[in-house]
Amino acid sequence: MRVAYRTFNKPIFGICMGNQIMGLAAGLEAYKLPFGNRGHNQPAVNLTNGQCVITSQNHGYALKDDVMPSGWQRYFVNANDGSNEGIRHTFLPFSSVQFHPEAKGGPQDTRYLFDSFLTQVREFKAQRQELSEQQECVMGNAAQSAEPMAARA
């Protein structure tokens, strides 16, 4: 995962253990929760907008987030016990949540996480396509300007 952070220039969205793996690779530590967070009605607060969402959780560990590594920020926090429920990179398209957004704790409370990730993927794909077209244009122009020189020689 550490190598991916440096070289994988694509969006990443981790869920559950994916949150722990991303956090460990970023330099955070994991710790065992006293009781674990289990249930389909666990409140988590999105720290970027203050929205409290109802989530489905089933984990006994959390990331220790009192000091965040450079480039990372807390994303979600459990409203009951204050434990970490998500992290995100400040400028790269990497984010993760400890809870299960696919399990629909609230009817559609966390659907926007998937919408956001898909938007990041589409933007990445569009940027990659644009770069590819620019490279083709440059290579095409280079080939055209080389032809007359070869013909003159």
TrEMBL record:
Residues 5-118 form the Glutamine amidotransferase domain. It comes from the Eukaryota. SUPFAM superfamilies: Class I glutamine amidotransferase-like. Pathway: Amino-acid biosynthesis; L-arginine biosynthesis; carbamoyl phosphate from bicarbonate: step 1/1. The keyword Transmembrane does not apply. CDD domains: GATase1_CPSase (cd01744). Pfam families: GATase (PF00117). GO terms for molecular function: carbamoyl-phosphate synthase (glutamine-hydrolyzing) activity. Keywords: Glutamine amidotransferase, Ligase. It catalyses: L-glutamine + H2O = L-glutamate + NH4(+); hydrogencarbonate + L-glutamine + 2 ATP + H2O = carbamoyl phosphate + L-glutamate + 2 ADP + phosphate + 2 H(+). Its EC number is 6.3.5.5. Belongs to the CarA family. Heterodimer composed of 2 chains; the small (or glutamine) chain promotes the hydrolysis of glutamine to ammonia, which is used by the large (or ammonia) chain to synthesize carbamoyl phosphate. This is carbamoyl-phosphate synthase (glutamine-hydrolyzing). The gene is CPA1_1.
